[in-house]
Design brief:
397 residues, Alpha-Beta Plaits, Ubiquitin-like (UB roll), four-stranded antiparallel sheet, 11 helices, 34% helix
C-alpha cells in the first residue's frame, strides 16, 4: 500500500502540503486541470516557484485568484460560506469520486471544530478564512494529490505548538487558533513545544491531518520526497517534508485486545470504533454476547500492532466503561494488496486488489464510493458495484 508521511517539524499549512506534493512529482498541469473542475470563476491558475528556506530548496505554491471580474488579483479572497455551500460546490464538480469524498471529509471535520468553538451546529457554521477560495483550493488540491499518488494511508509527526497571536475575521486570537486547537484535540494529535511566535499550524493544515492522518511513523520503503515552503523565513528551514512510499507490512506478531461491555450506551461504540482506527488499529469488530445474569452485552475486539498496545489500551479504557482488557499475542499473515482507481460508466471507483505470488486474485470495489456514485446518477448501488466488478476483471485478466 502506498502511504504518505508528513514531517511537520515546522508545522503545516494547506499550501505547504500542496507545494510538497508538487515537489514530490504531482504534475502542475494535472493539479490545475482538476482544480478547474470546481468551476470557481475567481480561480485562474496555479504556479510553483523554487525557493530556499534556510539551506533547503523547496516548492512554494502560488494560486492565481481574481477577486472580481474586473481583474484585480488578491491572494486572500474571503467569502463567507457554510458547509452546505462548499458541499454543493464539490458535489456539482467534475472531480473524481474519491477526491470529492476526501475533500468533503476534511470540510466536515473542519465544520465540527468550528461548531464546537462557536457553539452552534455544523450547518450553521460560517466559514471565513477557510471559506476563502484559496483555502478551498488547498483542501481540494490536497485530495487531488492523494488521488494522483494513490495514497491509502496518511501519517504525521508530532506538531509544534508555538504561541503568539493572529488577526482573523473574529479579531485578534491566540495561537494556535481556537479552531486549530479543536481540530488537533479531535485527532488526539501529539504536540511538542516550539519557540515560534508565528502561526505554524493553520486551520487548513490541521483539518487535513485531523481528518486523514494517524500520528505515528510508518515502516516505509521510500519512493519520493517532497518539500513544500512556508511563506515566512524563520530561524530554521520553514518547510514541510512529505515522504511517499510503500508501507512495509510483513507477517509478524500482533495483538488481539478484547473486553466485554454490558453497562454502556451502545451508541458510543461507533465513536469508539472510529477512534480506534484513527489510533492505528488494524481491525475492530463487535460480537453480541450474554454475560452473568443473562445480560446482553457486546464484546469489543481489536487487532493491533505490538507497538500500538499502550495507545489502543489507554483509548479503550478512557472511552468505554470497561475496567480491564484481555491482551493476547497473535501471529498474523497477510496477502499483498494495492488500491487502484478504475474508470466506469458512472465515474472513477477505487478498487482493492489482492495479490498472491504477484498475481491479482481478487478485486473489491470501494463500497462507499459506489454508493456516492449511485446517488449522484440515480441508479441502484448494485448497478455501480456490478459495473466496477466487470471493469475490475479486465485488470485481473
Amino acid at each position: 500500500m502506498t502511504v504518505l508521511y508528513c514531517d511537520c517539524f515546522s508545522g503545516i499549512s494547506g499550501d505547504m502540503f500542496l507545494g510538497a506534493l508538487l515537489d514530490a512529482g504531482l504534475p502542475l498541469d494535472y493539479l490545475s486541470d482538476h482544480l478547474k473542475h470546481l468551476h470557481l470563476a475567481e480561480f485562474k491558475d496555479v504556479t510553483v516557484e523554487r525557493v530556499h528556506r534556510g539551506a533547503l530548496a523547496a516548492a512554494l505554491l502560488n494560486l492565481e485568484i481574481q477577486e472580481d471580474l474586473g481583474g484585480s488579483e488578491h491572494s486572500t479572497h474571503h467569502h463567507e460560506r457554510r458547509l452546505g455551500d462548499i458541499e454543493k460546490l464539490i458535489e456539482s464538480s467534475d472531480l473524481p469520486g474519491d477526491v470529492k469524498h476526501t475533500s468533503s471529509k476534511i470540510f466536515h471535520r473542519l465544520a465540527e471544530a468550528e461548531a464546537k468553538v462557536h457553539g452552534c451546529s455544523i450547518q450553521e457554521v460560517h466559514f471565513h478564512e477557510v471559506g476563502a477560495v484559496d483555502s478551498i483550493l488547498d483542501i481540494v488540491g490536497a485530495a487531488v494529490g492523494l488521488h494522483y499518488f494513490n495514497i491509502s494511508s496518511v501519517y504525521a509527526s508530532p506538531l509544534p505548538l508555538g504561541t503568539g497571536q493572529v488577526q482573523t475575521q473574529h479579531g485578534m486570537l491566540p495561537l494556535p487558533a481556537p479552531a486549530t486547537l479543536e481540530l488537533l484535540r479531535l485527532a488526539q494529535a501529539p504536540l511538542v513545544a516550539s519557540p515560534a511566535n508565528h502561526e505554524l499550524v493553520t486551520p487548513t493544515g490541521a483539518a487535513i491531518l485531523s481528518a486523514l492522518a494517524a500520528f505515528k511513523q510508518p515502516n516505509i520503503q521510500l519512493k519520493q520526497v517532497g518539500i513544500g515552503a512556508g511563506r515566512r523565513d524563520l530561524a530554521w528551514p520553514n518547510v514541510l517534508r512529505i515522504l511517499i512510499g510503500e508501507e512495509s507490512v510483513t507477517a509478524g506478531r500482533h495483538l488481539e485486545i478484547e473486553t466485554n461491555i454490558d453497562d454502556m450506551n451502545p451508541q458510543v461504540l461507533g465513536h469508539v470504533m472510529a477512534r480506534l482506527f484513527q489510533a492505528g488499529a488494524l481491525d475492530v469488530y463487535f460480537t453480541s454476547i450474554f454475560m452473568k445474569k443473562n445480560r446482553p452485552a457486546t464484546k469489543l475486539s481489536v487487532i493491533a500492532r505490538e507497538e500500538d498496545e499502550d495507545n489502543i489500551c489507554n483509548l479503550i479504557l478512557r472511552e468505554t466503561s470497561t475496567l480491564g482488557l484481555r491482551v493476547t499475542r497473535i501471529w498474523r499473515r497477510e496477502a499483498e494488496r494495492e488500491m487502484r482507481n478504475i474508470s466506469t460508466i458512472y465515474g472513477e471507483v477505487p478498487v482493492k486488489l489482492k495479490f498472491m505470488d504477484g498475481e491479482i486474485i481478487q478485486a473489491t470495489p470501494e463500497f462507499e464510493i459506489c454508493v456516492r456514485l449511485a446517488e449522484a446518477v440515480g441508479v441502484p448501488v448494485q448497478h455501480v458495484l456490478q459495473e466496477a466488478v466487470i471493469v475490475s476483471r479486465t485488470i485481473m485478466s
